[in-house]
Amino acid sequence: MCGRYSLATTPAQLRERFAVGDAAPTQPRFNIAPGSRVIAVNTDRDGTPRGELLRWGLVPAWAKDPSVGFKMINARAETLSERPAYRAPFARMRCLVPADGFYEWQAREGAPKQPFHITCADHRLFAFAGLWSVWHRGEEDELRTLTIITTAANPLMATVHARMPVILDRDAEALWLDPAATPAALRELLHGLSAEDTALRPVGTAVNNARFDGPQCLADPLPAVPVDTPAVTPAGTPPDQGSLFKIG
What we know:
Blueprint: E1 4-7, H1 11-17, E2 29-32, E3 37-43, E4 49-56, E5 74-76, H2 84-92, E6 94-99, E7 101-108, E8 111-120, E9 126-136, E10 142-152, E11 163-165, H3 173-177, H4 183-187, E12 198-202
Parallel strand pairs: 4-10, 5-10
Antiparallel strand pairs: 1-2, 1-7, 3-4, 6-9, 7-8, 8-12, 9-10, 10-11
């Protein structure tokens, strides 16, 4: 799956790489979480790419409640044509989701999960393959949302998690947005990065907090302190006097 990602780049770099116009975020994003409004690239009716902000978590047009979007942050590439929520968007409502990395958590026996930040090997900007939808809350009000497509992990990524988001080849992005593209041609694009083009590294636990969006999310993990290491009091520091305020 893909439950968090980063877009720690400048608006100018984003505009240069993608046709996002004024929809580009005004500051870097280090911990983008489901439910956030995120930048996406789709097309006008004449096929011209444009950027807009969509909420992450797809809400199908027929949904009774928009809260279902939190269950649809990802769509499996293998079943896009089978799932009712994704069938129509796959046919005609596809988008690019700009990013520069994503996070995944590795399960460890007897220890907390270790977060990893995964990028392209050359750390370039890229685009996830996405689908979008429109849900009407009233006659005029509407909610525009998206989901990120996932596929089986490559051998390197599989050491952390069994799934990974689909990162499109740059020369495939135009085809993904093309309204005339055939389903067969589109399915050919839905593969993961190769292991050779994937870089992953462990990061600290700041990213575990979905509400925190600072550069510390990309910091290296703190070194473990052996349990038998004695505490060291810096020179000139008075001994611990305990709390000045006691209850009772």
